[in-house]
Write a structure and sequence with these properties.
The chain is mostly helical and about 80 residues long. The protein is built from one helix and no strands. The longest helix is centred in the middle third of the chain and has 61 residues, at about 1-60. Keywords: Coiled coil.
Amino acid sequence: MHNDDSELKRITERLAQLEINQSFQEESIESLEKTVMQQHQDTQRLERKLSLLTEYLKNMKQQGGIKHTHEETPPPHY
C-alpha cells in the first residue's frame, strides 16, 4: 500500500505541474495573439500612410512640384 500512496502522490504532483504549465502557456498564447493583432493593425496603418504618401508624391510630380535635382534651382547660399 505504501508504494501505491507514493505513486498516487507522484501522479497528483505531476498533474498539478501540467496544469500550471498549461496555464502559463495559455497566458503566453493570449499575449502573443494580442501582439500579433497590434502588429497587424500597425502594418495596415503604415500601408495606408504609404499609399497616401505615394499618391501625394505622384500628384506633386504631375503638378511640377517635384523636379529632378539637375532641374532644381540651387538654394541662395550656393
